[in-house]
TrEMBL record:
<keyword id="KW-0233">DNA recombination</keyword>
<dbReference type="GO" id="GO:0006310">
    <property type="term" value="P:DNA recombination"/>
</dbReference>
<dbReference type="GO" id="GO:0003677">
    <property type="term" value="F:DNA binding"/>
</dbReference>
<comment type="function">
    <text>Involved in the transposition of the insertion sequence.</text>
</comment>
<dbReference type="InterPro" id="IPR052183">
    <property type="entry name" value="IS_Transposase"/>
</dbReference>
<keyword id="KW-0815">Transposition</keyword>
<keyword id="KW-0238">DNA-binding</keyword>
<dbReference type="InterPro" id="IPR047930">
    <property type="entry name" value="Transpos_IS6"/>
</dbReference>
<dbReference type="InterPro" id="IPR036397">
    <property type="entry name" value="RNaseH_sf"/>
</dbReference>
<dbReference type="InterPro" id="IPR012337">
    <property type="entry name" value="RNaseH-like_sf"/>
</dbReference>
<dbReference type="GO" id="GO:0032196">
    <property type="term" value="P:transposition"/>
</dbReference>
<dbReference type="InterPro" id="IPR032874">
    <property type="entry name" value="DDE_dom"/>
</dbReference>
<feature type="domain" description="DDE">
    <location>
        <begin position="75"/>
        <end position="203"/>
    </location>
</feature>
<protein>
    <submittedName>
        <fullName>Transposase-like protein</fullName>
    </submittedName>
</protein>
<dbReference type="Pfam" id="PF13610">
    <property type="entry name" value="DDE_Tnp_IS240"/>
</dbReference>
Length: 233
């Protein structure tokens, strides 16, 4: 017998779904969402919202990923640094040429071992072999691709990797709003969930007409409602 993923929670599932949706969909803090819900007559603390995001965000993300279509075989890789508890870490990120986030891996190093971990995870989880891998001039990518026998797929130079570099912008906005990540584990879990939910609602609105945008929004909302239903898959 299937059980509800919202069982033993005091608040109605629709409230939980809405709170988690607002956090991942917009650049809002937990306290912002608390204020918005209070204005709608729902008195819930920001700490409760944080626990909802931590628990249900990963559940929703796994469901979205399991139902998503295969990405493009052209991958763009990039890494940016951030600080967690005063220590430097790197956010290794991969997107395809259509802007779909493939994966985000939080690591303490910016070396060949770290690049290998990202590439092996991509090759294992994407279900499709890349035709081209676009990177910046970091030597770790070249060394890692050589070890995997994929050096011939690397494409480097000019502004070819702008797609991956621009994909860090939503993360930076959320990071500033949440006043930095608390730990590597928390950052990894949050960013992995954010990537899948971002993909669902990423319509690239500057490239499509208004009528097409409305259609895509409707489809995304239907998929979200299906994904966040109360019963376990």
């Amino acid at each position: 017998m299937k059980t509800s993923i919202y069982s033993r929670h005091r608040f109605h599932p629709d409230i939980i779904r809405r709170a988690v949706w607002m956090y991942f969909r917009f650049n809002l803090s937990f306290r912002d969402i608390e204020e918005l819900l209070i204005e709608r007559g729902v008195d819930v603390s920001y700490e409760t919202i944080r626990r909802w995001v931590d628990k249900f965000g990963s559940t929703y993300a796994k469901r979205i990923r399991s139902r998503s279509v295969s990405p493009s075989p052209i991958w763009h890789l990039d890494e940016v640094y951030t600080k967690i508890n005063g220590k430097m870490v790197y956010l290794w990120r991969a997107v395809d040429d259509e802007g779909t986030v493939l994966d985000v891996v939080v690591q303490r190093r910016r070396n060949t071992k770290a690049a290998l971990r990202l590439l092996r995870k991509l090759l294992k989880n994407q279900g499709i072999k890349p035709n081209r891998i676009v990177t910046d001039r970091l030597g770790s990518y070249r060394a890692a691709l050589k070890l995997l026998g994929l050096k011939h797929l690397q494409d480097v130079g000019g502004r070819k990797n702008n797609r991956a570099e621009c994909s860090h912008v939503p993360i930076r906005r959320g990071e500033r709003k949440s006043q930095k990540f608390r730990s590597v584990h928390q950052a990894q879990k949050l960013l992995s969930s954010h990537a899948q939910i971002y993909n669902l609602f990423n319509h690239r609105r500057h490239l499509i007409s208004r009528s097409t945008l409305r259609k895509f929004r409707h489809q995304a909302n239907l998929k979200w409602n299906l994904t966040t239903t109360s019963m376990c898959p």
